[in-house]
Recover the amino acids of this structure.
């Protein structure tokens, strides 16, 4: 049990936050735990309307659990969930070649590659929504309708941030929030609007959405170019063999020339091209795996509210 029983919801949440931080919990997990706890506590207070908050909280601590107990449950469950979702451990490779080709058996690699292809569409949408929303919010700011639209726009960015967080967590394996930040109680609508505009996370989310367009273009271009080039290099020698056997009607280049000077005959060019295609393909997979870690860290820093 806690050394001091919290007398207010704010004290309970602060004890829960401190305990989770002391346990080294992820900021996304802390956000989810605080949201669930506050939602439950406020529901209990609503059902016991008219009773002192300290009295209701004393009852809740006995049923829902003290902050330390709740924090321990969340940490233990998170460990179990992460273990269940984590891909099977790969057999350790001792050689450099084994480590290089091992990326092909990692499911997260292909999820990262798919995210690279998807990022162009999401990047265009996020960028367009952000630029149009900010432009209209500023352009209509002198009208009452403009204020309403600005609030609507900033609220939708938080929803989109949660959607992107789920995409990041599902495809890239980075733990992201599954609950929004709980709005503080007791604030007027104008205070809540002011808090929304002054929250650094609001602007960091918009920055993330703007960055996703150039990043999405780069990711998509690298993915498509890498896939097309590597597969062309892999199948070109196979197509050449088929052409020599009369199985393929298309004439395939069987050597490397420069100004009509034969540089590399087909006996060497074909194996080199095949090996180059394999190297490019697995190099792309390594890039996708590294990009997953980079993108996950970027999203974590710009979309997740700091735990402190």
């Amino acid at each position: 049990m806690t050394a001091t029983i919290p007398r207010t919801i704010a004290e309970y949440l602060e004890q829960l936050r401190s305990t989770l931080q002391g346990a080294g919990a992820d900021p996304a997990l802390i956000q989810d735990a605080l949201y669930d706890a506050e939602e439950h506590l406020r529901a209990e207070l609503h059902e016991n309307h008219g009773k002192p908050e300290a009295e209701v909280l004393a009852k809740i601590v006995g049923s829902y659990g003290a902050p330390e107990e709740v924090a321990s449950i969340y940490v233990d469950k998170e460990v179990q969930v992460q273990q269940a979702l984590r891909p099977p451990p790969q057999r350790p490779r001792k050689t450099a070649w084994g480590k290089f080709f091992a990326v092909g058996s990692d499911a997260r690699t292909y999820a990262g590659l798919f995210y690279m292809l998807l990022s162009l569409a999401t990047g265009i949408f996020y960028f367009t929504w952000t630029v149009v929303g900010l432009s209209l919010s500023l352009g209509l700011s002198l009208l009452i309708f403009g204020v309403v639209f600005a609030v609507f726009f900033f609220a939708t960015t938080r929803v989109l941030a949660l959607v992107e967080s789920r995409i990041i967590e599902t495809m890239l394996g980075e733990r992201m929030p599954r609950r929004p930040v709980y709005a503080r109680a007791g604030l007027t609508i104008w205070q809540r609007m002011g808090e929304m505009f002054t929250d650094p996370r609001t602007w960091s989310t918009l920055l993330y959405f703007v960055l996703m367009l150039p990043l999405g273009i780069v990711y998509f271009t690298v993915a498509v170019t890498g896939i097309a080039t590597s597969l062309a290099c892999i199948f070109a020698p196979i197509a050449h063999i088929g052409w020599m056997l009369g199985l393929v009607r298309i004439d395939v280049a069987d050597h490397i020339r420069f100004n009509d000077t034969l540089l590399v005959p087909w006996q060497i060019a074909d194996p080199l091209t095949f090996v180059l295609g394999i190297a490019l393909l697995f190099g792309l997979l390594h890039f996708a795996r590294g990009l997953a870690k980079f993108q996950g860290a970027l999203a974590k820093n710009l979309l997740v509210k700091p735990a402190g």
